[in-house]
Write a structure and sequence with these properties.
alpha+beta; Rossmann fold; D-amino Acid Aminotransferase, Chain A, domain 1; Dna Ligase, domain 1; 3 domains; 7-stranded mixed beta sheet; 5-stranded antiparallel beta sheet; 10 helices; globular
Length: 386
């Protein structure tokens, strides 16, 4: 059987660049070499695309200054007539037509702006190539916390109240913005960039001075900041969803945090060995399965599926929850391409990382095939001679 040429994309112009590299190499290591010709594709911090044998080992990025001259820069060229994505080699910025790499299917192991928010997905849709993630709609809604909240509200799903602070308003009238946010709820408040992940630039404010600092930080990373009440005694619960008819639900996890904010360092720098499988999100301290009652577990699993469908997500996603002291469940956010693809939430169900990748690839091909059953042409005869 001829192997599929599987492009594993990682990196990108995002503050989650390094997290994406880790996820990418976890996928590359787990993919079945008998089924796929795995082609690592690195997007640098300017979103330039590179391929090369050096990318087959994560040690390339563990050097103080990775030797980029050993890689081959390529341009992504859509080939919608064949439903492929071509990687055309360049020399001094000029396309070299004789050499090209053809991708049959793409697995984005990317996180953050430009690569998880629908931008990359739009390119892949234009190419007509199957890809294993949410589509443009799901990616855009899931990445933007304000849009996610609006969709959850429209679907009647539980979420915390919130307000939005725009950078333009903050720069012109800080006092008015602060007063508006303080009217939302009593302190403490959480401040988050509206279109970012991995807990980057997330802050907790116990008063106006801290709120001002948190907004300065969040709005340096995003044009909008989302502010909501801080549930200090709430527990966090995460659930992964795998696209299907119907979607498939993973076991639940309870991340273990040492303070009121699960920070970037706790997510990615604790507990893992360099190059180990249990690095990235997989290295975080967690309780699996989450120690919840059968009733609460069932409710969260149901809400996770409903949120996944409401947002229009695909591939494998993760829905994060907060449960307050009264036992109320709130959907916190949805991650379109979770760190490590949340493989550690599927292993307890007997689904290995390799099998998870197989399922994602199969589903990507299936969804792409369904899409092309749609009629995209209509002969209106508007250009006929009069």
């Amino acid at each position: 059987m001829e192997r599929l040429r599987l492009g594993v994309l990682f990196g990108g112009k995002s503050v989650e660049h390094e997290v994406s590299i880790i996820t990418g190499y976890q996928v590359i290591a787990a993919a079945d070499a008998a089924r796929y010709e795995v082609i690592p594709v690195y997007l640098d911090r300017d979103n330039l695309w590179f391929i090369g044998d050096e990318l087959k080992d994560i040690s390339f990025f563990r050097q103080d200054v990775p030797p980029m001259n050993r890689l081959t820069r390529v341009y992504p060229v859509p080939d919608p007539a064949r439903g492929k994505l071509l990687l055309m080699e360049t020399e001094a910025g000029v396309l070299r037509k004789p050499r090209q790499v053809v991708l049959d299917v793409v697995l984005p192991a990317t996180h953050g702006t430009f690569v998880e928010d629908g931008s990359l997905q739009g390119l892949l849709d234009f190419a007509g190539v199957p890809y294993a993630s949410s589509n443009v709609r799901g990616s855009t809604v899931g990445m933007d916390k304000e849009l996610t909240k609006a969709v959850l509200a429209a679907a009647g799903l539980p979420h915390l109240p919130y307000r939005i602070a725009a950078r333009s308003n903050w720069e012109s009238n800080k006092s008015e913005v602060l007063s508006n946010l303080e009217a939302l709820a009593a302190y403490p408040l959480f401040v988050k960039p509206a279109a970012l992940g991995s807990s980057v630039a997330v802050g907790r404010a116990s008063g106006r001075v801290e709120l001002e600092r948190a907004l300065d930080l969040a709005l340096a990373f995003s044009e909008r900041a989302l502010v909501e009440p801080a549930l200090d005694r709430a527990i966090e619960i995460n659930c992964s969803i795998l696209d299907g008819d119907p979607p498939i639900v993973s076991v639940l996890e309870q991340p273990v945090r040492t303070n009121n904010l699960l920070s970037f360092d706790e997510k990615y720098k604790s507990g893992g060995k360099k190059g180990a499988k249990k690095s990235g999100m997989a290295s975080q301290q967690r309780l699996i399965p989450a120690p919840l009652s059968k009733e609460t577990t069932g409710r969260i699993r149901d809400l996770a599926v409903r949120a996944f469908l409401a947002v229009g997500a695909g591939g494998v996603a993760r829905v994060d929850f907060l449960i307050n002291e009264q036992g109320e469940c709130f959907i916190n956010e949805l991650n379109n391409i979770p760190g490590s693809l949340s493989f550690y939430l599927w292993e307890p169900l007997g689904k290995s990382f390799r099998e998870l990748i197989d399922r994602l690839v199969e589903r990507a091909i299936e969804v792409n095939r369904r899409r092309y059953r749609t009629t995209f042409a209509f002969d209106a005869n508007l250009l006929a001679p009069r």
